[in-house]
Every structure is written in C-alpha cells, then in structure tokens.
Fold:
Amino acid sequence: MDVTLRIRRYNPESDIEPHWEQYEVQAEPTDRVLDLLHQVKWFQDGTLTFRRSCGHGVCGSDAMLINGQNRLACEFLIRDAGSTITVEAMRGVPVIKDLLVDMDQFWEKYRQAMPFLVNDEIPEDGKERRQSPEDRERYEDTSRCILCAACTTSCPVFWTDEDYVGPAAIVNAHRFIVDSRDTAKEERLQIMSDADGVWRCRTVFNCVEACPRGINITGAILEVTQEIGKAAVS
Amino acid sequence: MTVVAPARRGSIPPTRVVELDAVVVGAGGAGLYAALELKQALGPEARIGVISKLHPTRSHTGAAQGGVCAALGNTEEDHWEWHWFDTVKGGDYLVDQDAAEVMCRDAVETIINLEHLGLPFSRTPDGLIDQRRFGGHTRNLGEGPVRRSCFAADRTGHAILQTLYQQCIRREVVFFDEYQVLDLAMPAEAGGRVTGVIALRIATSELYAFRAKAVMFATGGYGKVFKVTSNAHTLTGDGMAIPYRRGLPLEDMEFFQFHPTGMYKLGFLLSEAMRGEGGFMVNGEGERFMERYAPTMKDLASRDVVSRSIYLEIAAGRGIGGKDYVHLDVRHLGAEVLDTKLPDMSGFIRTYFGLEPLTDLVPIQPTAHYAMGGIPTDIDGRALADETRTVVPGLYAAGEVACVSVHGANRLGTNSLLDILVFGRRAGIRMAEELAAAPEPVADLDAEDAVQASVGALMRTTEGERPAVIRTELQELMFTKCGVYRTEALLTECRDEVARLRARATNLLVEDRGCRYNTDLGDALELGFLLDCAEATVASALARTETRGGHAREDYPDRDDANWLRHTLVSRDPVSGETSLRYKPVTITEFQPKPRTY
Structure:
C-alpha cells in the first residue's frame, strides 16, 4: 500500500524552526512505522535522524509521537497506523534533531530514584536470598520498564513543571520500594515524598495509556504514596 | 566536559583526549559486569569508563529471553559437570574444555551473585531461583531434559542488563553514552600494547582519544550481516572488525548460529523457552518432524540440529503450503503458562502477526542469531594474538565479540548469557589485578590522525553510493550463500562478491553533512565493519571442508575430526590486505569426541 509519512523535521544546525516534510513510501500492512522511517533514511533522505536498536519493543530506543500519541515506532503496525502517518519527537523534552530528543534530564531523574538494590548482607549459606513468589510478584509489573520515556513525556504535569521526577522515575523507585530484599526503602520513600515527587501526580493516566509495556503506572504511583503513608504512621 | 560550537559543515572538529584507568567498550552484560568488578576491586577512586554507541539499557543483552543456565539443582538433581558435558557436546566437540569447565563451574556462584545484586529471578514456591528446561541441556550426560535455566519470566536478559547497569550507577562507573569506537590505540613505541581507543562522539561528531592502561571490548556480535536476523540494528561487528583491521586474528568465524524459531520474515526470536515449556514444531503435513531427526530430545535438540532439520523439511517441500517456513504449536500450553511464563513471547505473536498463540499456529523460520567466533581470548578475557596463545597486552574481550571458546561450533541456548556473565566478570577481575603493574598509556597519534582523516574524507565525498544499498546487497548475499547450508561454489561466489562490495564501499555518500547526531555517517562506518566481518567469515567457511555445528557444508556433510578438530584463526595483513588462515588445536580434557545424536 501507499503510505504518506509526515515527519516533523528540525535540525538546529541549519533550521530556524521545526517544519513538516512529507515522504511517500510503499509498505505492507504488517510493516512497522520504524520500517518506513528506515526506508526514508536509507533510500530517500540520509539526514533523517532518530534512535533505534532492537527493533522489536524491548530496548526502548524509539519512542516517539506517532499520530499524536507516544508509541514505539518498532511496535506500531501500518495497518493500525493508517495510510497517512504523522511522526514527531516526544513532547516536554528538548529536540536535538528531528525525532531525537535530549534524554539527559530523563536519566538524571531516573538516577534520583536510587534505581538499584541496596542490601550488602549475604545469606550465611552463601546461596540466594529467599523470596516468595508472592513477594516477587509485587514488583513484577514495574520491573518490566524499558526506560523509553513514553510515560514521562506524555505527562501534563511534567510538561508544565520540569522539576517533577515524572512517572518513569517513580516506576523505578517502586520496583525497589516493594522488593522485600531491599534495605533502603526509607531513603527512597523520602526522595519520593519530596516536593517534586509523587504528590505532583494528578492521576491523568496519560502515562498508563502511553506505556508500551502496559505497566499500571498510576497504580504504582498510588502504591508509593501508600507506602509513604504507612512509613509516616509507623 | 565542554561542548564546542559545531564545526564548519562537511568537516569534523579536532580530537579531544580523555584519560582513564580502564576503558570498557560496550555496555551489555559482559562490559557492565567487568566495569562493576573493576570498581569493586579498585575502589571509588578508580577511573573506570564504559563507552557505548547506545544508551547502556539499549544493549542487546536486554533482548535475551529464556534464561541463563547454572546447575543450581533447585528443582531437580543437577551437577555442573553435566552442564559441562552438554556444552561440549552442544558445541560439536570444538569447545575448549578447560574454558567450558570454568564457565559451568563458575555459573553457580555467578548466578547467586546476580541474585545478591538484585536480579528479579522468578521463584519456586520455596522462594528459591526457579529453573526450567532448555534445548540441549540434559541430565546425566544426555538421558533426558533437565531443569537448569534460571529465568526472570521471559525477559531474563532485560533483568540482567538492568541489574548490572543499576549496580554500576551505584558504584559510580563513568558512562560515555553514544560514542562510536573506531580504532584501537596501539602505538609502535608501546611494543604491541593497546593503550586506548579512538571514538566518535555521536552527539557532536568530535573524535575522542580515550587513553587507558587496559581496554576491554564487549561489543557483541555482527548478526546484521545477514538478511534475516534476531539481532538489533546496531550489531554490526565493530569490536571484531577493529582488531581484524589491525592484523589481529579472529577465531572460528565460520560458525554462526541460526536460531530455529525466528518469527517468519521478521527474524525476531520466539524464545526456545516456548519449546522448553512444551511447544513443538510441525511441518506442512502437520507432522512433528523433529521426532525423526532427534528421537530423544526432539524439539529440544541443539539449535544447529533443529535449524538444519527445518531447512531440510522446507527443501523437501514440506514447509507450510510448500513455502519457506514451518509452524510452532504452543496452543496446548494454556493461558496460564503463556501469560505468566511467556508473556513477552505471547505479546510478540499478537503484536506482529496478529495471531493468538492459544488458538493459532505460529509461522517460524531459522534466523541468524549468534556468532560463535570472535576475538580469541583466554579464560580471563585476555585477547590472544596467534595460535601459540601470545597475549595482546592491554586488550581484553568477553561476550559474543570474543571466542574463548566455550561454544565451539554451536552454542547451547542460555549459554550466551552465561558466557557474558562469567567471562565479563573474570575479565574485570583480571584487568583489576593487572592494572597496578601496567605502564601509563602512550598516545597513538598516528591512529588519531588516520581516524581523523578517514572520517573527514567520508564527510567530504560529494557523490557515491548510499551505505544502505550496499548493506542490503551484503545481507541478501550472506543469507543465501553463507547461511544455514553452504557449498564450495556458493562460498566462492560469496567471497568474490564480498570483495566487490568492499571495493564499492570505498566510495560512500554520507548525505548528512552536519556534526549533530550524524547517524548517516554512523551507517557508513558500520557498513565498513560488517564488510570486514563478512570477509573473515567467508574466508574461514570456504576453507573448512566439513560439517560441524553452525557450519554446515552440503558438499562435506560429515564431521571430520581427523582433519578439522581445530580452531580457525583468520587474519588480514594490514599492509598487503591479504587474508590468511592458521589453525590451533582444541583443548580436550575430559570428553572424547563422539558422534552427536539427540
């Protein structure tokens, strides 16, 4: 089928402001938007710039705004995207070039959440720490995050307040806060209850809709607020 | 780090210098584990840098699905010696048995260490690390399948990558994200010692000379040399091509694993765990054909055996509707198993095929998956320069870029994750030990100038071919002429055509003339790496007149231990450009080669 790809182009090295360019490509209904971006880059216009790696939704490189919604380009099939497709960089973060955004701030917020297990005690028998399947299940959902930034860059609170840690950082804090093996829960809850932490969430649910992994992000944020409450009482 | 204003168009800025104690290239499991060990051994003051052309969490370790094997014996009796045997047999006896012994023995402690670092393993009802079956892994030297694979649902690699990255953040490893390494520093006055790397900072097109007392390559494989592959777009063999250009050898490059269950036409993997959990394949006649090829292990025979069986079914006209694929049947596994143990796989099938694994058969075909070959190393990750195992001082390698050789002619499922973990870790520990006595790094100004000149030249060409045109031809060529089955005629044509493509690639057009994230330039540079890997692969494959593991010759259908129980070392003379082949013996300590049946 014939597909029209409308891409918002912007190269600050040479452009005064962003502009739309249109490309005509041939596609199968089962092609992904990423395939079409490749067609353009490889065979029509080598200057088109975007990130991608695995090409099948597990590395988190190619989140972008497609037909007005944050999606992974490698997971969005043409038969669902339609014959005229608009592609832009994610919102709320500086555009570096075309579809490629500045992720520095995103990673900075991720690091703020202390995204690592803290527990230097090793069981006496030298074996694995025990963890019941039920305890393991508590962070199953949030451990699936691929750090694509689709959630954070679709959050209206984040758009208006860049100090907000944003949903992705909270998801990654949650992953450790509810891990029965972790010993830094208090410190993490402290960070999350700061002025720029979980209380900023207005439960708009944009993040849940945007997450390509289908993580219940708002649910995780709610759980973190409950944990903060529990810690305050005890 | 300061950022300079963009240089004039069509040129690149001058080289900048970064000094570190050790530099790791590649931020997958092997590189991150090495960096973590270096930091833990040397303390917070040590300047340990990890360079990646991606952001670390994008590394392809994250795409590994089914698990990582270790004989923990958590769900049934198991012993690391059984794992050792399976690895040697799986590798069609081309495995260096001393190295495989180290891997299978270290596996147990390494998996436990990962749990301590926070890895979210799936658990047994008792709270132990859960384990499941995987292809080629058996109890008591081949009696039947064993539960050896430790897993985090069907995203074990993702869990490994995240856990190691998280702990590297905790230990303050310095990351250089989005830098493309282009050459080694090997100054003449350092007597063959590697003293750093030269890299392109993708954000600005600045060249950086990283000077370090030790350099480790952990850059992964080169699956993008084939048309249908499970590999990420970024797996272009950079870390193999760079030492190869320097005249260093690559080992066993003819052995490439085609994974049986690639998604038809797409190439992405449907994990072997789908068969581990009880899925099986059927041909166009609805027959479970693996029962004929591997009566004991059936669909869980080793990958080379299964991929060849699929190929033979298709060649005999028994593909689905006579076409070039067969079906994977997982309908009987039920919603519980599909949704809790294989959720990502079920998701792939729904997303990309629009099929429902509970009710539909899934089209699959073999897909280029894993390079058994690479930079020859010893069991501590030290790169080796020749068949007498001379060490290249200052250079280390681990993971798919390296060849220890623990996979021999064919890697067992899950052993790639184990390889990156065990040998990434060992390389880190060894680097930390050797760092104290290592001399201060000497700059390689000649290499810095040469990279500056070659990248500059690419940026100035005004007409030429698009990299993608040549790359597409290369991928088609390698898939059809150097794929699952090979012959002398096909390989000879392939060799000559690769040479022609290499000649054409001396005149590439980089359309993007800017300095900001010039990924067009990146495509051109990566094409060069792919072409070098293709040359090394085809030269090695043409010479090996036998069928063994991931190297199947239609014209030489049998394994030939009398002549070919040895490793290939291919190298190219940097001056004359001639490729040459040398060989070194296989280390056999415990298991004598036997015919391989499953």
In short: The first strand of chain B starts at residue 16 and ends at 19. Chain B is about 35% helix and 20% strand. Residues 1-9 of chain B have pLDDT under 50 and may be disordered.
